[in-house]
Amino acid sequence: MLNNKIAFARLMALLKSIDPDVPLPAGLEDYLWKNMIVEALCNKACRIEEENKIPKKAYYVVRGFVLVYGYNHEQDRYLFRIYRENSIVAMDCFMRQQVSPYCIWLCKDTLLWSISSACMDAVYKHWDGMKAFAFKTSSKHNAAKEQSRASLLGIEDIETRILEFYKRYKGLLPPKKSPIRDACIACFLDISKDTLKRNRRNLKNKGLLKY
C-alpha cells in the first residue's frame, strides 16, 4: 500500500494524460493505492530487473533515476534509457511477460513504487479495456523515450548536446555527486568520456553550466 498522496496524484495525472478523452474506470485509483508497493531505498546503485529474464514488475519513479542497460553483439553494456522523476518504467517485455534483453538499475536514493504482473492481470480481468490501455501507456512512454534520445543525438554541436542533456536531466551536477557515472552519460550521448568531461568543463567556464 502506498503512503504519499501528493506523489500518487502525480501518477494518476500521468495515467489520465495517456488518453484524456477516455476516463479511467471507477475503482482503479483505489486499487492502485492499495496494491502498489513502495520499494526499499538503496544506499548504492542496485539491479532490480535482470537481462534474459521476464521482468517481475512495472515501476513509477517518485524521486531519482532509473537506468536501463542493453548489451551489444560483443556483450558490452550500454546505457539504453534514463528514467527520471514522474516516469513510468514498464518495458514491453513486462507487458507481454516475455524474456527481456535489458537489465534495470536503481540509482542510489531513488524512490520507486511498483506493481506486480499478478496485480496487472487482476486489473485486466476486472476492468474491460485496461489491457489495451496498459499497452498504450507502455507504447506511448517508449516512443517518447526514443524520440527524446534521438533529438539529443541529432544535435551535432557536442557542447550544445551536453548542455541540453543537463537541462533535461536535472540533479546530475556536480559530476562528483551524480548518481550516474560519466562513462554511462557519455555512452548515452554517443561520445567518449574524455569528450564529455572536456566540453562540460568548457560549458562551466562559459557560465552555461553551474555547479
Describe the fold and architecture:
With 211 residues, the chain is an alpha+beta fold. The chain folds into two domains: 5-152, Sandwich (Jelly Rolls); 155-205. It is 43% helix and 18% strand. It has a four-stranded antiparallel beta sheet with strand order 1-8-3-6. Helix 6 packs across helix 8 (193-205) and helix 7 (182-188) packs across helix 8. The longest helix has 24 residues, at 130-153.
Element layout with pairings:
Elements: H1 5-16, H2 28-35, E1 37-38, E2 46-49, E3 57-63, E4 66-71, E5 77-83, E6 87-89, H3 92-96, E7 103-106, E8 111-116, H4 117-126, H5 130-153, H6 158-168, H7 182-188, H8 193-205
Antiparallel strand pairs: 1-8, 2-7, 3-6, 3-8, 4-5, 4-7
Helix pairs in contact: 6-8, 7-8
Q: CA-to-CA gap between the ends?
A: 38 Å
Query: Mind telling me the CATH superfamily name of the largest domain?
Result: Jelly Rolls
Give the overall shape, derived from the CA principal axes: globular
Q: What is the strand content?
A: 15-25%
> Considering DSSP H and I runs of 4 or more, what fraction of the residues is helical?
40-55%
How confident is the prediction overall: mean pLDDT?
A: 93
Sheet with the most strands, sense and barrel status: 4 strands, antiparallel
Poorly predicted tracts of residues: none
- Alpha-carbon Rg, integer: 18 Å
Strand order, largest beta sheet: 1-8-3-6
Number of domains: 2
Give the number of helices.
8
What structural category characterises the helix and strand content?
A: alpha+beta
CATH-level-2 architecture of the largest domain: Sandwich
Order of helices and strands: HHEEEEEEHEEHHHHH
